[in-house]
Structures are given as structure tokens and as C-alpha cells.
What does this fold into?
Amino acid sequence: MRFLHTSDWQLGMTRHFLGAGDQATFAQARLDAVVRLADVARDRGCAFVVVAGDVFETNQPDRRTVGRALDALRTFNVPVYLLPGNHDPYDPGSVYRSAAWREGCPDLVRVLDDDRPRIPVPGVEVVGAPWTSKRPVTDLVAETCAALPADGSLRVVVGHGPADLVSGDFGQPGAVRVAALEAAIAAGRVSHVALGDRHSTSAVGDTGRIWYAGAPEPTSYREEDAGNALVVDLAPLVAAGSGPARAAARPAVERVPVGRWRFQEVHGDVQDDADLAELFAVLDSLPDKARTIVKVKVAGTLTLRQAARLEEGLEAREHVLGALEHPERHLDVTVVPDADDLAALSLTGYAATARDRLLARAHRDEESEARGATDALGLLVRLTTGGTR
Amino acid sequence: MAVTDVRGVTSAETRFAPEGVTIVEAPNETGKTTLLEAVDVLLEVKDSSRSQRVKDLQPADRDVPSTIEVELTCGEYHLTCTKTYHRQPATVLTIHAPTRETLRGADAHDRLRAILDAEVDPALYAALRYAQGRDLAAVPFGGSNVLAARLDAAAGGVGSADDGGLLERAAAAYLRWYTPTGRPGQALQAAARELGEAEAAHAALLDRLDALQRDVDELDRIERQLPELRRRRAEQLEPRLAAACAAQAEVHEARAELAARRAAQVAAVTDLTTARRLVAQRAEQVGRTVQLRREADAAALALAPIRARLTETERAHEEHATARRQAADAAGRTRRQCDDAQLVVDLLEARAERERLARRQRRVEELSAIAREAEAAVAGSRLDEVGLAAIREAAQAVRVAEAARAAGAPSLRLVAHRDLDVVVDGEVVALRAGDELSRTVAARLRVAVPELAELELTAGSSADGLQAAVDAARHQLRDTCAAAGVADPEEAERAAAVRAADLAAVQRCGADVARELEGATLAALQAALDTVEGRVRALEDRLGARTPPAGGLAAAREVVLDARDGADQADERLVALQAAQDEHAQELHALRTQVEVAEAGLAACRRTLQGVEQRVAAQRAEDGDDDHLEAARTEAEQREEAAVRSLAAAEQALAALDPAAVGREEVAARAALATLDGDIGDLRAAQATLRERLRLSGEDGLGELVQHAADRLTQARIDHRRTTRRATAARLLHEELTRAREEAYQAYRAPLCELITRDGRTVFGAGLEVEVDEDLCIVGRTLDGVTLPWAQLSAGAREQLAILAGLAAAQLAGGDGVPFVIDDALGYTDPTRLERLGEVLDRTTDAQVIVLTCVADRFRTVRRAHVVQLGDRTTATVTEIPVAPPAGSVPAVAPPAGSVPAVAGPAVSPAPEPTALPLPLPSLAQHPGAATRSSEVARGRRRPKDGIAPPRQGRDRARTGEVEARDRGARHPDAGLPAEAAALTLDLGPH
It folds into this structure.
């Protein structure tokens, strides 16, 4: 029995570093990913689809977001089970209770708004552990599993939340306790746990039956392996008499890339012009720049002119990439005027006086003054070398 | 320089001393200014130009090419440039030093421009062009970098103005972010505003989202709480209420039982009362029967004596009645006797009356006869009253007449003193004592007193007439008496008396008759008599045979009286008897009544008894006999006792249920339920409200709006930081530059001021001080303690000071300088000062000064000057000028970049309109305070207006080759210099 496991669509998410146009592209990319998920489900012969939470970025999305999401959902030809997650909990203000949703929800799409078992196909149960508030105080998934009969039947539990084993935070209320899930699997209550919340695709624990599908399109730099969905071939549990069930085989879980965007951090140690050139070369060599969001972090010591080059070089590439984030002030970059700077600043008279004073201030301890003086020197360099800003 | 066919000059060649003063003398209109303009055109305009400036060079009457040739030194360069305009245009540039080369055409022009751009200070070039009539403002050296550099060096090298426009760009960068007055500019404000707005918008949206989340939480809480409340209602409160209701029902039942038993008890009491009453009634009725019987017996017993007494009384009454009847008979008899006696009396009285009446009748008849007799006598007499009166009258008249006659005759008056008789004329007259007798003596009179005397009296003779009257009267009397049937008055009198007596008799009789008749008539009298007669006869009839007793009336009356006494006595006795009888009758009546009453009472008693007995009988028939009633009463008493016990038991049962507690519990249960229902209702209402609110706010897409707002805020923060950072950098740089520049200016205008003062003291005297502002303009002069601002100085003083300033500037610039051209000036200067100024000029050796004048004599005190006479068309001898000396060879100044040797500026005014020259504003010059107000920014902005972009010292230093030169060209595409000066060394003549 095969199904598609996905999660964390985060529809309606925005990123501040995207301009209005890129924002629209970014939003459309997430909807396109949903349509591709429908294609994957169809192509791979999945019997149903589970979306393990955070379909929407917020419980109060724009109506257009809801409308387009519903439109994308209509492309599925198998049952789709949506689990309310921490971003879109099934609370009284839930998007799933909104008129727009109820009126437009396709027949094949079900919201797992309680823990009743759903039967997408005979012989398989889908049981959801929905979030009903933003602040659950218990492990919803473990509780749901514990309440299931230990009958060894094919049963997929759909849950959402950080797994303690992954996050390392074992005391967090509402975290998914992996040990409890494994116990439920061992007891034959659950044959597979489809989780959401973590945007990176990953298996949890040793059973091979607990998985995070990850976000179909990446949403941040921190994600290690986002942009996938999981095609799962359910492995039946073999019941040993009336006792606890045990796994006959690990389920086959295939990760299918569906994402198109990338979030990439570029780190660079810059000490000279060559380093700068290399940094720019790295940026220039990035593929599919329009759908790549880059954050640049550099460290090192630069001259005034190199610092200016760094800034100019980054600014020039801002419009090529989907987005280029770089701090206004690279804290790890130390700007030290060198001989060339001074040559560029080979001023005489009062201009030289002013330059020397700024240099003196740039070496003062008071950080903001030093920075200001450095900036002023940078401007002086640009002005004396033909710039106007 | 040399020119061919330029305006009115067919051919001219002039050489200028590289240092010191060259005086070009020529009359007006001989082309001095044309020469200078030609130099400017050569330096600035390509040979192919068709501009007006070029056209103006062409001679007015000939279509010939104009050729200009200039040889000059400029920095390290020594070059000669020749340009031909209009026809066969051509340019040839020959560089003599440092490397010899020759260029032609456009290359030659470009190379010339490049050299000039690099080496010439255009501000100084413009400033050191002094022409007569130019606005006599101070010479502005502020734009001169060369001068600034020299001044800088002179001041100890603290600064340099050779910033290549750096300050302008810094100011421009500053003004991107700030206003000229230092407030944040539009971009900064916009960034701050955007940040503020983004923060506010984000905060507002967050508030809304928080509110929405609170609503969600609240609704969630409500929706979790509601089922709990409902469960509590169903599992706790409803059973509790049901139990309370059941207990209450029990209490109601017990109360109903109690009420029933109470009713039964009341009924038992009623029954008992009834039974008791029946028993009592029966006893009472039986008692009554006995009583009634006793009463009837007693009544019957009491009736017998009364009856006996009645019989006795009736008998007595009969006896009395007999006696009374006897007495009545006796009285009747007596009364009749009395009546008979009375009849006798009446007869007798009637008879007496008859007599009396008859008597009266007779008397009347008698009297009537007498009267009739008298009346007849009267009727027979003729003398009546009238006749008598007439007689009496006539007699009187006789007596009157006689009296009258007597009056005429003596009269007698006699008075009797005693009774006596007198005879008068025979007539006796009896007189009584005191009487008087009067008589008239008609004729005679006789009077005799018998026995005593006689007296005669005779009247006189006059009495005839009177006698006649007497006679007449007498006659009359007789007639009258005759008529009356009498003889004389006496007879008449007598007759009258008889008649009167008759009349009196008549009257008397009438009165008597009336008296006798007693008011009645005679007829009435007769009638009465008849009546009496009738009575008499009637009485006589009644008496019949009975004869009146003897004794007459009185006796009769005695009899009557006696009879009456007897009758009265009989009556009295009868009355007494009657009274006794009446008394008996009353007693009898009373007795009879008594008997009747007693009998009636007895009968009534017996009837009552009978009724009572009947009722008792009937009741016995109905209610049973007395024993039965008693038994019933006893039973009722037992039942009543039982009912009382039962009631007590029911009361105890009710009390055992504790109805108050049960009631309280029910109330409490209902209240709890109502409270819970109220809570549920409140929650449901809140739920509905919140659902509706969420439905509405859910449509806003608030979540995404918040994201957008957060994005906007993040971006605004980044922009704001970036903007602020850049603005801060620009401000800092600008501040530092302007501060340093100001300090430099303060330092280096001192040498200029010093030079001007030093030379000026030669002209004005030792008491001279001048004040130079930050733009190196002279703004005031102090002479012998009197300070005047520039504008208030005389035209001559301003002219002299301007030349002194230019001279000072030219000397300061030294090898980097340009020629100081004085074009036809000093027209305002008096000879003394002209002479002293000449001395100053004469001392000038380290600058090239070119004086154009039409009056050479003005400069005669410049003894070392080279003088060139223009217009003699002789070619002056060219003196070889030494090639530019190495750096440092120029005294007093140390040019930082390359050496610019002596300069001979073309003495051509580049600007036909002197007023177009940028000059310091008089207001600034006049008010040093205002000058300080002009901020660094303002100054920085004004500089470009000077139109000069001076070459940069630093670049000069850094000049290393072609690349650098190309860069310079590239970086100054907009140089647009109005005058591209060249250091031109023109020497004149053999001097």
C-alpha cells in the first residue's frame, strides 16, 4: 500500500528580503510544488496523500491564498488528508472552519480535525493527531497512538511537532516523544507515523517507520534537506498471535524532490582582492539564480577600497539572485585603510587634515564613532576615486 | 604673441617680459584688447570653429585667414602654438620642453587643452585680469587653487584648497541626506517615516492578531467548557433536582394525608357534636313535655276560683240592675209632677202677660186720641210759625220805629232797688230789685209807682216823622195780624202759645205711645197679645181638668220648686245606683277577661304540649329512641378520639420528612441549575459573538497581513540603518572637510593680507590695514585708524587696492601663476598715488605684469618696465626666456607639483562684459558678519559657479604617465573652462 507523505507547505508565507515581484514568484512556487505533489501521487500510484501539518503559514491567510490552495488541491485524484499543525491549528479561528475553505474544499480533501480513523482504502486507517490550539500541553501524537487498538492493522498516524529525539529537547510540552511512538509501533497500534513541522526530510528513530517529510519548497537557510516529499510503501506488521506485533520489514520510503527554490548561505573569509574575487565568483556561479536566495556572511580584514568593493559587488548581485541577504555592516570584517587607500587619499591641505582626523577617529575605541569614521573614510575614498556617493 | 589679419590689425608681434612689468602702450582703438582676445581664442577654440568669437576676429573688410601665434611657458612646458582661422584652418603645436615634439590639427588642440587644464589655475587667470571700468569690487581669489596652495605653503602648509572639487562632492553627498541648514533631508526623513509607519502598522496588526488570538483562545475555552457544563448539568444537577422533586412530592403526599386526617378529625368532631346535640335535644324535649304538662295542670287548677268569682259577681250585678230600674221609675214620676206644676205656673204667667198687654193697648189708644185732638187744633190755626215770625218782625219794626221816635224824644230809664210794680201808661210792670226799665217817650208817657208817685213825660214837637214811621209800622203790624187772623201781636202770641201747647201735647202723646209700645208697633203688640192668648189657651188645654192650685202664681211656683227638689233627689239616687252598677260591670268584665285569658293559656299550653309530644314522637320514630341516641353519641366520641390519634400520627410522619429541608434542597437544586443554565447561556452568547467576530476577521487575512507588515518593518529597519549609516558618513566627512578647510582659510589668507598691506603702505601710508575675507576678497580698509568698508571707499582707492591685491596674488602664485593684466586702468588715481603705485609695480620682479594703457605717462615711475609701443608695426626683438626652472626655484612659494615658471598672460580681456565676472557679493564684502553666515556648504556650492574646476595638486604629484593624463581627461569632461590659460612667455624687444 503506497501513499504520499508531505508536510509544511506553509502557504501564505512571505520573506522580508523578497521584493514584491519575487514574493509573488515565491508564493506561486509553493503552489506549483503542491501541483507537482499531485503529479507525484498520480505517477507513483499513491492511494492517498497525507499532509502532516502547517498547510498554511497562518490561520488567517489572505483569501487569495486560500482560493489558490484549494485550486491546487483540486489537482489531486486521490484522497488528501490535511492535518492542522501549529501554524494552522484547528482552533475556533481555524482556516479550515472558514467559509472560504468549507465552500471550496474539494471532495477528496479531508481535514483530520479529530482522531477518528479515516479509511482511504479498505484495510488502511489514517488517524490524525491534530493541533487544536497553538499551545498544546501534551504529546498529541503519542496520546493518539496510545489510544489505538494494538491489532497490528495497517494504520498511519499523522502528527505534527518537534520530535524530542531530533530537537534534543525532551522536556518541551507538546514535543513528539519518539520512544512513545516506537512503543506504539512495537505494540502493533501503528504501522507508520507521518510527521510534519521539521522542514528537512528525515527519518526519526530506528524503526524506519517514523518520518518527517520536510517542506516541499525550502523556506529558510537552516533547512538541511528540504524540497522533498516521501513516497511510502507501507509495510504490514506481523502479528505474533495475540501478543505484540513486530515489524516484518522496513517500509520502503523514497524521497522525491519537488522543490525548485534554494536557500543558501555563502560564507567567505576575505583578506584581499583575490578573496573578494573568489567570493563574487562563488555568487556568480550559483545556478538558477532567480530561484536562489543567498545570505552572505564574510569575515576578514579589508582595506577601505576593498570594503567598498565588497559592498558594491554585493549590491550589484542583489538583483540577479532571487534575493541576496547580507548585513548592512559585516561585523566580522575589519576595515583598515592601507597604503593604497592612503594613496587614493593622497590629499593635501585641508582635505588631508580632514582625512587624518577621520583616520584617527576610525581607530578610536568607541565603536560607533570608529564605524562612522570608517564609513566617512569609505565615502572619501569613493569621492576621490570618482564616485559621488 | 603675433597676429596676422585679426580685426583691424594686419600684422603685429609683441613680446612680454617673463617677469616684471611690460607696458603695452597704444592709443585707443589700436587693438590692445584685440590682442588679448586673440590669445584667449587661440587657447580655447578649435581652428575649425565658426563661433561668433572666431568670426569677430576676422577683419571687417577682407575675407582673409586670421593667424594667431602664441609662445608660452606653463609648468614644465615651453611651447608655441599657431592657429589659423576662417580659411585654411590649421593648428600647429610645437612643444620645446621638456620633450620636443610637434603636433598638428585636432591633436595639437587637444594636447594644448590637456596641458592647460593641468597647469593653469583658471580662477586665478580670471581674477588677475584687471580692466579699467570693471566693477570696482575686490578681486576674488577664493577660487584659485594655486593661490590657495601658495598661501597654504606660506601659512605653514596646514591645508590646501586644491581639492579637485572634493568638497563640492562631499557637500553634494551631504545634501543627499541633509538640508543646507543641517536638518535631516527628504531621504532620511522618508526612511525614518517609513520605519515609524512600518513599526506602527506592524504593531497595530500585531495587536489585531493578538486580539484575534485572544478571541480564538476564548472561544476555544468556551467550546471546551460548554460540554463540561452540560455534562455537569446532566450528571449532577438534573439528578439532584429530580431527587429533590421526589422528596418534595413525598412531602406533598404526607401533607395531603395530614389534611385528609385533619378533615376526618373535624368530621368526627362534627359528628360527635351532632350526636351530643341530638341527645341534649331529646332530653330537653322530654323535659319540656313534663314541664308543659305541669303547667297545664296548674293553669286548670287556677281557673276554678276565678270562675266562681265570676258567677258571684254576675249575680250581684243583676241585683244592682233591678234597684237601679226602680229608682229610675221613681225619678220619672217625680219629674212629671214637676212638669205639671210648671204648666200651672206658665198658665198663670201667660195670663198675667195677657193682661199687661191689653193694658198697654188701651193706653196707646187713649194717647192716640189725645194726639189726634191736638193735631186737629194745630191744623185749625192759621197762624203758623211763619206768620208768627212776620208778626213778631212787624212788631219789632213798630218797636224800632217807636224807639226811633223815642230817641228823638226823651227816654226813660228806671232802676228798681227793690221789688216793686210800676205802672207805665197804665200798664203795670213788676220789677225786681236791680231790674231796669227803659222807655222812650214818643209823645207822652206816664209812669206811676203806685202809692208812691206818678210821673209823666211829654215828648217835644219834632216827633212827627218818627210818628209816621211808627204809624206805618203799626199799619204793617195790623195787616200782618189780620193776615194771621189775629188782632194783635199779643193775640198772635197767645195763639202761638196755644198752638205750641197743642204741638207739645201731640209730641207728648207720641212719646207716651212709643213708651207704651216699648219699641214695638201697635200691631206687634197685638200679635204678642194674640200669641199669649194662644199660649194661655194651650196651657189651659194641657191642664185640662186639673185645676190650678189655690194660691196663685206664687203658690204654683212653690209647688214647682218642691217638685223639682223631689225630682232632683230621685235623680241623685239613680246616679248613685248607676255608678254602682257600672263598677260591678267593670269587675265583671275583668273577671271575664281573666277567665278567658286563663282558659286561652291553658289551651295554648295544651296545644304546645301536644306539639312537643308529637315532635318527640316523630323524632323518636326518625332518630330512634333515646337509648339509641345515647349509643350513637358514645360511638361518635370513640371515633373522634381515634381521629385525633390518627392526625397526630400523620403530623409526626410529615415532620419526619423535614419539609423545610426538602424545600430548601429543591430551591437550591433549582438555583444551581438556573445558575448553570445562565452560565451556559452566557457562554453560548459569547460563543456566538466570538464565532461571528472570528468569521469576520478571518476574512481579512490578518495572518498574512501581519507577515507583510513584519517584512516591511524588517526592510524598513534595514533601509533605515543603511540610510542612517550613509548619511552619518556623509555628514561626518562633510563636517571634517569644511572644518579643516575653514581652518586652512583662516591660516592662509594672512600672507595675502600681509603682502597687500606691505605694498599698500607705499601707496597709502604707514597707517594702512586691510581686511580680507574667507574668499580672499578685500572687504575693508583701515587708514590711520579710520575703517571703511569696501563699498564706501572712493573709486580710486578701490582701484588701487584691487591692483595691489592682484599684484599680491600674482606674486604669491609665483611660478604657478598667470600674468596679471591691468587693462587701461588707474584712470581714477591721482598722480601722487599713481606715482607710488608705479614704485610698487617697479619693485615687482617675481610676477609677470602686463599693463595695457593708452597713457604711458601714467606708469612712468615704473622705471624697469618693458615698454612696447603698439601700432608702429615694427617687430620687437624676442628675448629668450629661460626654460621653466625646477621646482623650488621660485622664491617665496613652493609649488607642490612641478614648477610653473614665469608666466606671461595674454593681455586680452576674455569676457567682453566685465559685470559677468563672478565677484564677491558686495553685501558679503560689506558685512563680514554675513560672510560668516555663509556656511561651508554655501561656499562649497558657490564654488562651481565660479566655473573653474581647478587642477588638482595631488594628481599633479601623482602624474606618472599617459594613463594618468587620460584619466584626468575622463574625469573632467565637464571642465568647460571659460579660459584655458597657458603660461605664455612672450618677451619683448632687446630689453
